[in-house]
Amino acid sequence: MTMGDDPTAHGGAGHEPGEPVSCTVRGGVADVRLDRPGKRNALDPAMFTGLVRVGETLRADSSVRAVVLSGTGRSFCAGLDVAAFDEMTTGEHTLPEAAGPAGGPAQALGQRAAHVWTELPVPVIAALHGHAYGGGLQIALGADIRLAAPGTLLSVMEIAWGLVPDMTGTQVLPELVGRDVAMELTLTGRVVDAAEADRLGLVTSTEDDPLTAALALAEDVAGKNPDAVRHAKRLVNLAGRTRLAEGFAAEQTAIRRLIGSPNQVEAVRAKLSERAPAFTDPA
């Protein structure tokens, strides 16, 4: 990946040759890519650690206003590296250790690699193609929006290996597709194509070029009041996870903080003047 000639572009965490996860930030949009194309971006300890490291770095960067998560090569992510399953036949495989203390609900390294994208204060859009199997699907579930190419294949694959999803999938999937559908997908491990995934709600939509579509959507979001965008993500993610009264109260707290704030005033002035707004980064 290159940063081009845009003076607003800068390299993010993981933007080093040979790193399994790369990141470039341009115009407030972070372009994060799983980068083990020869392995279909299969998950190994370095990939887990790279995902967490890049995610945590972006969370602390107030200039980032939206994130696009994709994979290089033929697939988004084909799941756990098959070498790990070879180790399981001899009883040698162990779960990867956590990369430092975690501040949120996800403590295991694999869970953090998926949930860190949910914890980002800005929207994360996953662009899926090829395969999103097992842990790869669970990483995609950590995004706020999932766009899939028509030929994408998706599976809660763990049951085929005698396992269960352990990267937040059992808790997140039912929110998207319902408990019964989540149960069926988890118990069978069957492969669904993008069209069925769209019908089930597993992906947001299908796109001929999901990466281009995701970047365009991210650029659109990056042009909105960044304070409002952050509040919107937090509020929508509260739905169904907190009591209704608490959700309503959170709405009112957010609107009181937004009305009359510098970026909200700028949004109104720009709208009335029919010009592009010039927002400042959140404090």
Automatic annotation (TrEMBL):
Residues 1-22 are annotated as: Disordered. CDD domains: crotonase-like. Pathway: Lipid metabolism; fatty acid beta-oxidation. Keywords: Fatty acid metabolism, Isomerase, Lipid metabolism. GO terms for biological process: fatty acid beta-oxidation. GO terms for molecular function: isomerase activity. InterPro entries: ClpP/crotonase-like_dom_sf (IPR029045), Ech1-like (IPR045002), Enoyl-CoA_hyd/isom_CS (IPR018376), Enoyl-CoA_hydra/iso (IPR001753), Enoyl-CoA_hydra_C (IPR014748). Belongs to the enoyl-CoA hydratase/isomerase family. NCBIfam families: PRK07509.1. This is Enoyl-CoA hydratase/carnithine racemase.
